[in-house]
Amino acid sequence: MDKFYQALTIVSFVLYWLLVAGVTIRVVFKPRPVGVSLAWLMIIYILPVIGVMAYFLIGELNLGRTRGERARAMFTPYEQWFAQIHHCQYHQPHSISHRISAIHNLCSNRLGIPALSGDTLSLLNTPSEILNAIISDIEKAEHEINMEFYIWHHGGLADSVASALIVAAKRGVTVNVLLDSAGSMDFFKSHWPKLLKQSGVNIVEALSVSPFRMFFRRLDLRLHRKIVVIDNRIAYTGSMNLVDPQYFKQNSGVGQWIDVMVRLTGPNVAILNTIHAWDWEVETGIRELPHLPECPASIDPFNHTTQVVPSGPGMPDDIIQQVLITAICQARKSITITTPYFVPSEILLHTLRTTAHRGVEVKLILPKKNDSLMVNWASKSFFETLLKAGVQIHEFNGGLLHTKSVVIDESHCIIGTVNLDMRSFWLNFEVSLIVDDPEFTKQLSWVLDGYLEQSTQVCFDTWRHRSWGNRFTERFFSMFSPLL
């Protein structure tokens, strides 16, 4: 019997060694950033069995067979829809300024989505202003309302939005709501989904989370976009989930969430509506491509330009990071960045340092308190390198700064749902606007100036003398930063 157990132990060891060797080869040969591969190898070797299981569950971008096949089949009709936009008068490639011409060329070539003129943009930066504007537009809807959010949390004005949707559905407006299963878990447990469905609202749980599905699809792949489109005429996007901050995560100890949203009218509304249509079809199999924007015979050639950039599974790899780095590299005077979660890739970190070294004023505004312990510590591991390069780091004291924005040279900006972390760059479904409009950018700059007034600048001399315990914790969590 002893020989049997001895033989079983040897066989088990050999099989596990072969498994680890096989996974190691797969990790090494998988095309991805070196830091991500090294992080995974560390987890696999430090955490026997658990590390291998974790890699199988969340180590690779797996949308699932059904969604993957559906997305591949969808590509051609959506590509054809976007191709027609290139022939619209709103697309004026020769009038696009040098500020975003490189970004337009990148997005046009890789996504097939051109930059368009003719939008009217309004920046909304308080929860009541944002939610009341959405409610007002819902009340005026005549034909169709399409919405998608990562989080819908009931309470306060968020309930007023739900009530407005119910009234709209009862008067004959088609209402399609797509919500991420994990982000909106509490909402799906409430009475609201049943009430909405009974009233005629089509509400779909995207990327459903369950133990059974973990073997067929990566569970931490999330729908992180925030989009509202009404009658294909009005759209909203930005950083804010469908929540009233006064009723959301009040016990988390980080304060109220601080966000902005953009209200659009014009041709890019149809682009955002098509992104919603893509996500709706991936989840349901139902195709509802919107009408193309009505194109006039001519428009003002000096009108500002806006580029919509969707990213995530089914979109070209690394597109949003390419856009971000292109914008940063073209900065001449200043860059101000806000993000709640700062865990940059190696190339983004290098780009920020290089930009500061060439004399560009780089400001980074981050929340003082964060709802993610791991991200909070991991982000601090980059501070010393950035401060040494001359990057200004400001910690916001007025709550969880959730706004995701980049202002370049106070002339153009990036605003949307993307955090500066690997999850937004490589994993989640995201959407961003690149806005070449000095007036709009000036409004956003004023908002960021308000954030700076509520922030404390990190002093390099003070930071470099922080405790060794803090240094160790930062370095420990930074090893996992490519996976956060």
UniProtKB/TrEMBL annotation:
Gene3D superfamilies: Endonuclease Chain A. The active site is at residues 224, 226, 231, 402, 404, 409. It is found in: Cell inner membrane; Cell membrane. It comes from the Bacteria. Residues 219-246, 397-424 form the PLD phosphodiesterase domain. It is a multi-pass membrane protein. This is Cardiolipin synthase A. It comes from Aliivibrio fischeri (strain ATCC 700601 / ES114).
